[in-house]
Amino acid sequence: MSQTTAPASRPQPDVLAVAARRRLRFPAALRNPLAVTGTAIIVVWLLLALLAPMISPAGPLAQDFERLQPPSAAHWFGTDQLGRDVLARVLDGARVSIILPLLLVVSSLLVGTIAGSVAGYFGKVADEVIMRIADLVFAFPTIILAMVIAASLGPSLTNAVIAMLIVSWPAYARVTRSLVVVASRSEYVVAGRLLGNSPFTSLGKDILPNIIAPVVVLATLDVGTAILLLAGLSFLGLGAVPPTPDWGAMVSDGVQNFSSWWISVFPGLAILTVVLAFNFLGDALRDTLDPRTADAVKGRAL
Amino acid sequence: MLSPFRRIAGIVGIAVVATLGITACSAGSSDSASSGGKSVVVDSSFDLKTADPNREYETTGSIVAKALYETLLTFKGDDVTKPIDGLASYEMNADNTVLTLTMADGHVFSDGTPVTVDDAVFSLQRVQGIKGNPSFLLDGVTVEKTSDTTLTLTSAEPNPALPYILPNPALSVVNKKVVEENGGTATDADGAESYLNGASAGSGPYMLESFDVASQVVLTKNPKYTGDAPAYDRVVLRNVQGPTQKLNIQAGESQVALDLNPDQVAELDGSDVTVLSSPSRYMIFLLLNQDPSVSAITSNPDFLKAVKAGIDYDKIVDLAGEGSVQPGGFIPSLFVGAIDASDGNQYDAAAAKSALTASGYAGEDVTLNFPNDITVQGLSLQSVAESVQAQLKEVGINIVLAPAPVATELDAYRDGKETVGLWYWGPDFPDPSNYLAFTPGELVGLRAGWAAGADQTVTDLATAAKAAVSTDERQSAYAALQEAQNASGPFVPLLQPAQNVVTSPSITGVSLNPVWTIDLAGIK
């Protein structure tokens, strides 16, 4: 904003470099309070997750303290029913409860986008088969289907992630397919094909850059849901296996000790802040990267 | 108890009820003040199925049956080591096969008819005949009327536990005439259950006023009861979950709360309530599979020793709160044959480490299976499992927890497929012979892969314990059996969680018992 002092005599490339640097600083689109808040919270949580072993006041599994102590100077978040420090467990739990859903969203993004592109670009049998499988998954309530899969595979984080992957890829496949169907009829795509590009080159070079924005927006908005879903599975005893610290499982522990509110409130607040932050960021990204819906939203707001 | 305001409210209440001409429906507890006599509200978390005493075998069912009916033999207070006379006195023959019961005079049913030997024979035969949950209590027993005042219970095998079984409220005596008039028989064609869910036909201190399996049971005083009259004319037993029970007792809405867990009780400290904590009849134990095909690690005797010495039992008792204890062996501290915790397994980290070295264990993962959706007296097994895991980790044993819903895990347990299991045992009757299941080749022994003949010392001691007749002989025989099991067997008794009963200050005494939990007539 203040880099306007470049002399007019400077050659062209430098101007571009300045512009590029400016964009790296902070995308203009994200310069609204909600996006900044969201990003800040996410960055803080990611740092806490990465640094957990160094900044944690105690080991997340160490049962060294008096049981069920309310929050105090020694234990900011209190201690749980086994005498473990809740703060240490919330910090360490971030590694499971944030990082895993992020990985999950990335993998369902990959699976869904590839499946959707193939369906949309090739059509016919591929389209029918992939979309009917997606319909099958859509036909069940997400959490119930994830529970059934996780329960039949047995409780573990890996199985919970597999279950969540199975229920979450079709959303991406759907969106990608509809975008690919529209884009593949564009003249530049047809021209590329006539020039001899293979279908995969065409998909990767011509179509992908034009459809990726809405899919990324969808993914960002989905991170919050994924965190909630994993916490839900852990809450039901189908995700993290004890004693692994996981926010959902910690909330469940708190339910067992109803009047020791601190056991469940702090991991609950952690889930709240992270989910909220990802939703803020997702909204802001959608406003920028997906102008059509942004316009629609603004129109409604007016 | 009654404040003037409540009295006026009660009179107004009666007037309103009278003017409206409503005569039925007095199930609510709010009208207790208007009924004239004293009433008491007891909160319990229901597992109720029926009020038919010969069919029930649930905790709540036993509480209800105990209040409505009487049994041939009974226990005094919470002492279950010695059966005393109930409706009858007893005499066991020398080889423990024939139990002769002589009916006591003077007991009458709530309809005024005397309790006779025919009623007793009918009731016991009905328990056997309807093949309900408690029928197994009299498996292999023949019930016979031998004279106008006596009946005999004959078993093919010596059955020294029988006098300890008879006080179970499931073996209550019902009024034969009334029950038969309402479709009752001593076969599985019996149809009296629905009648008995609406009215009682017993000689106990209370009569059934209303019965709802899901919400509440109301009992009124039996005017014909021949024993000491209960202090309260009316008892309302309500189905309330633990956290709400705590609020109710604090607010004075209930006078007795039966299902508070140790942590909830600890939070009540300083409130104006009385807390009674005592060890419950449940025994939580760890089993290590002795079948080498299931696990070569846990079937290693040195590894077994390492686990037994590596667990800090005091820490686990702390976890379970006030009133819980470590049982010395697999027989809970309340029963004949129990041994002191100081004679049981002891925590010794150094011994655990050296035994572990001798076993050749090299840090492999050992799976600990447990049900994660049940609690024992409000204590979640998951807490115990996590605690055991952390303690064994310190001596160098890597335990991996494998929680599962009880419905799934029970099969693996019963089939003896678990490497290490964490379970609990609730006795069917308060007699040590119930715990012979924990010996080689028996029910629970097989679940731990402990086949018949796997440990001759323990088997011999079990046979000796079974044959022992007098109480002293049985005490020492069962003590020797448990010490041998502690030394070489696959079971590690961890804990008897506490039974907590919280009462409001207006209650001066409650009578607890491991068999029927609480005697409602004993609330003072």
Q: Could you characterize the architecture of this molecule?
A:
The complex is a heterodimer of chains A (302) and B (524). Helix content of chain A is 74%, strand content 0%. Chain A has 302 residues and is mostly helical. Chain A has one domain (32-68, 77-301): MetI-like (MetI-like fold, Orthogonal Bundle). Chain A is elongated and about 75 Å long. Mean pLDDT of chain A is 85; it is low at 1-11 and 297-302. With 524 residues, chain B is an alpha+beta fold. Chain B folds into two domains: 37-262 and 502-522, Periplasmic binding protein-like II (D-Maltodextrin-Binding Protein, domain 2), CATH 3.40.190; 283-496, Dipeptide-binding Protein, Domain 3 (Dipeptide-binding Protein, domain 3, Roll), CATH 3.10.105.10. Chain B has helices spanning 4-20, 59-68, 117-129, 162-165, 176-181, 193-196, 242-251, 262-268, 301-310, 313-320, 349-359, 381-395, 406-414, 443-447, 456-467, 471-488; strands at 39-44, 70-71, 73-76, 79-85, 88-92, 98-103, 141-145, 150-155, 172-173, 206-211, 216-221, 234-239, 256-257, 274-279, 283-288, 365-371, 375-376, 379-380, 398-404, 420-425, 491-495, 498-503, 511-513, 517-519. In chain B, strand 7 (141-145) and strand 8 form a beta hairpin. In chain B, helix 9 runs antiparallel to helix 11 and helix 15 (456-467) packs antiparallel against helix 16. The longest helix of chain B has 18 residues, at 471-488. Chain B is globular and about 75 Å long. The interface between A and B is medium-sized, with 18 and 25 residues.
Describe the structure concisely for a colleague.
The complex is a heterodimer of chains A (302) and B (524). Chain A is mostly helical and 302 residues long. Chain A has helices at 12-25, 33-55, 86-122, 124-138, 142-153, 157-184, 187-194, 199-235, 247-256, 261-289, 291-301.
Named at the architecture level, the CATH assignment of chain A is Orthogonal Bundle
Average pLDDT number of chain B: 87
Would you identify the CATH architecture of the largest domain in chain B?
Answer: 3-Layer(aba) Sandwich
At the first level of CATH, what is the class of the largest domain in chain B? Alpha Beta
What is the percent of helical residues of chain A?
Answer: over 70%
Order of helices and strands of chain A: HHHHHHHHHHH
